[in-house]
Write a structure and sequence with these properties.
There is one protein chain. The chain has nine helices and 25 strands. A hairpin with a 2-residue loop joins β8 and β9. The mean pLDDT is about 95. It is α+β, with helices and mostly antiparallel strands. It starts with a strand and ends in a 10-residue tail after the last strand. The strands form ten sheets. The chain has a four-stranded mixed β-sheet. It folds into two domains: about 120 residues, Creatine Amidinohydrolase, Chain A, domain 1, CATH 3.40.350; about 240 residues, Creatinase/methionine aminopeptidase superfamily (Creatine Amidinohydrolase).
């Protein structure tokens, strides 16, 4: 059983393929039939679109409940207990984020709840052909946003002080992000926390970026929108430099690109994610870019995972990193090595691949280049 809204619960949307902004109830009965319980506001749409066996309406359950309990308040928890009794259900698996109040009330009434500590639907990690098509569509839209951002940077003029100018005003991370977001929204995607981090700001992998952008510095653009219609995410990172890149930045970018290409070669069915991650780390270390702690106590080098699963959540199973997980045919994962140094900034490149029987296939079509 799941009780949540399907716009924020990937598990609920995966089970029902029904988007709703307000919480509703999903359960699978002992015979394997899937049920949802929704309000009158949502019932007709749920009957048209939800991929379940039966759609119930709360008001109809309430009418039956009130015949037996005319003097009691019909809470969501009471109506849920009533439906479970009708279906003969006394034991349920729930996600580990199941609402506490409902859990308390069900347990008080004798229902056994078993929270799943791992993925609620482990099969979500293996993507169907339909899901892969949704992710590819999301990546196409992500590429449109990336193109809009890079074109704005490429079209900027370089001022005497190295600050980029566009439309008579300094070009800022905020302006580039706004241009990216406008394109994504027009294409039916919801952008979230897009990164446009220039120069030293790029040394923090999750710094969104702010203020003016400058020539001859790295600019990391990391775009990860969710498609409004399908619910699937895109994810892509590129690192560019307006004008001539310093020699060390070029070497940094080249090392990241070579490590990503090595990962593409290593990824495949039954391959250890840890082994891929270690190969990526070793590749950049051999190129002369060390990982560790600098004199100021800051992380430098490559200090995050090589990749993560992508689908109905921006980060889902499996991971390619320090905790070993075996890659399987049908996994869709990002490949995003990066290097970060406070005095220089950073460089990260991110594509999305699907694991296949004899390797992997890159679903990302956008080119990679440093200087614009």
């Amino acid at each position: 059983m799941i009780y949540a809204d399907s716009e924020s619960s990937a598990d609920l949307y995966y089970a029902t393929r029904f988007f709703a902004p307000d919480p509703f109830l999903y359960l699978r009965d002992p015979s394997g039939r899937d049920h949802v319980v929704v309000t009158a506001l949502e019932v007709d749409r749920a009957r048209r679109t939800a991929r379940v066996d039966q759609v119930h309406e709360w008001s109809r359950i309430k009418s039956r409940w009130q015949e037996r309990h005319p003097d009691q308040s019909a809470t969501t928890e009471a109506l849920t207990l009533f439906l479970l009794a009708e279906l003969g259900i006394q034991r349920l698996a729930t996600p580990d984020d199941f609402p506490l109040l409902m859990a308390d009330r069900l347990r008080e009434a004798g229902i056994e709840l078993i929270p799943e500590s791992g993925p609620f639907w482990p099969e979500r990690a293996i993507k169907s052909a339909e899901e892969i098509a949704h992710i590819e569509a999301a990546l196409e839209v992500t590429a449109m946003g990336m193109q809009a951002g890079i074109e704005m940077i490429a079209g900027a003029a370089i001022g005497a002080d190295g600050i980029l100018w566009s439309g008579g005003a300094p070009l800022t991370s905020e302006r580039v992000r706004g241009e990216i977001h406008a394109r994504l929204v027009r294409e039916g995607a919801s952008p979230r926390h897009t990164i446009v981090a220039g120069g030293p700001q790029g040394a923090d992998p999750h710094e969104e970026g702010h203020g003016v952008l400058r020539a001859s510095q790295s600019i990391i653009l990391d775009i990860f929108p969710r498609m409004e219609k399908s619910g699937y995410w895109g994810d892509m990172t590129r690192t560019v430099c307006k004008g001539r890149a310093p020699e060390r930045l070029r070497a940094l970018w080249d090392a990241v690109k070579a490590a990503q290409e090595l990962a593409f070669e290593r990824i495949g069915d039954q391959v250890s994610g840890l082994a891929v991650h270690q190969a990526v780390t070793d590749s950049m270390t051999r190129a002369g870019f060390v990982t560790g702690i600098d004199e100021a106590g800051r992380q430098i080098g490559f200090f995050h995972g090589t990749g993560h699963g992508l689908g109905l959540e921006i980060h889902e199973a499996p991971r390619i990193g320090g905790k070993d997980q075996t890659l399987l045919t049908g996994h869709v994962v990002t490949v995003e090595p990066g290097l970060y140094y406070p005095d220089l900034g950073g460089a990260r490149l991110e594509d999305v691949v699907v694991v296949e029987a004899h390797g992997c296939r890159n679903l990302t079509r956008f080119p990679k280049f440093l200087e614009v």
